[in-house]
Amino acid sequence: MKALEGVRVLDMTHVQSGPSCTQLLAWFGADVIKIERPGVGDITRGQLRDIPDVDSLYFTMLNHNKRSVTLNPKTEQGSKIFRKLIEECDVMVENFGPGAIDRMGFPWEKIQEINPRMIYASIKGFGPGPYDDCKVYENVAQCTGGAASTTGFLDGLPVVTGAQIGDSGTGMNLALGIVTALYQREQSGKGQRVECAMQDGIINLCRVKLRDQQRLAHGPLNEYSQHGEGVPFGEATPRAGNDSGGGQPGTILRCNGWETDPNAYVYFIAQAAVWGNVCDLIGKPEWKEDPGYATPGVRLDKMKDIFATIEEWTMTVDKFEVMRRCNPLNIPCGPILSMKEIAEEPSLRDTGTIVEVDHPERGTYLSVGNPIKLSESPVDVVRSPLLGEHTDEVLESVVGLSEEEIAAAHESGAV
Ligand code: COA
Predict the structure, then answer these.
(1) Strand 91-94 vs strand 66-70: parallel, antiparallel, or unpaired?
(2) Which residues are bridge partners to 359 per DSSP?
(3) Average of pLDDT values for 322-337?
(4) What pTM was estimated for this model as a whole?
């Protein structure tokens, strides 16, 4: 028994944001029927291919545990099949460009009319407003949501992060909206519309930067290293390099091997509560009582030098040793793990966070598993479907077509 067993999802998603949402629903046990354009499919099947003519890792890693059906709702026969699928499903998810589903002939009003219990969930780049008809990809969302202006170094360009916070981040938001709407439907008996804008999702993740924007009106942001270095603040929350976004000073420090290994670094937090331990660890016990160092406030304008001293120590050991030595002292730190190290880490395989999947055309590959672990709803990651692999099966068992009708649908180009 899986948490979402019995929930059927009409999955009109493509690229990353929508598919990351429906993949989560599938991992929780929903029957996710992915609709793809006949002969073409989700564009990512062919993008960034590493093996000729084989579905890309981009596609496979976002579409596990789904069924693939080819269907063109813009054809007469396809429209009828699509209508029947709306009747038979609990949830419909889409992340096409603005208006695409309407242009297929299925605006929200019509979907509601066909199935009043339907939960209709969409991702767009922007919510209602000046940009609501724009197409949006990950980095557009990061730039318009405040992430890029606050990421990077003060003297450098705005920077986007490698974590796909606009796509997979918004996909997570949408999944939560969907299960919440399913929960409300238990009481109300009615479906509803769920909308997530990528810009909104990024702004939500950037709340500490909006916090700092308002704090600026009351004086400099003392905990930013820029303050300690005597660089004045401008009108907007600045880029803060690797400064911690919270109340405890932190930064990235070099470790043994940094000259040749681009990831021989550690994030080190000089947490006030364990300041004494930090001093002992780096061979500066005198700083514990020194009035120029003993309290967090007096240390603020010295953090650059303090971290330089800590780094003299971290450079003598490797990043894992820093963690091994700091953890028992309650000093929070994190080695900078490369993707290679993450891929090879046995404990991440044990928990199913990284999984090895077998695919008939590509062989085995690594993917992310479900980051949300439910004790009563275990996840088995099943390979992504080939294009149209389940078309006939779904047309027969969900849409209720006969063998002849299925053949006719193929003949007409609807599927
Ligand atoms: N059969 C026939 N046509 C289909 C189809 C199917 N099964 N599935 C999709 N299509 C058509 C749509 O009807 C639409 O055609 P139309 O615009 O002529 O009406 C088209 O394919 C899809 O358009 P669109 O979604 O705009 O694709 P795009 O490649 O131009 O843009 C995005 C891609 C991601 C920029 C855009 O979809 C978008 O802004 N999505 C919302 C935000 C988002 O999720 N972005 C992140 C993606 S990771």
Answers:
(1) unpaired
(2) 363
(3) 97
(4) 0.96
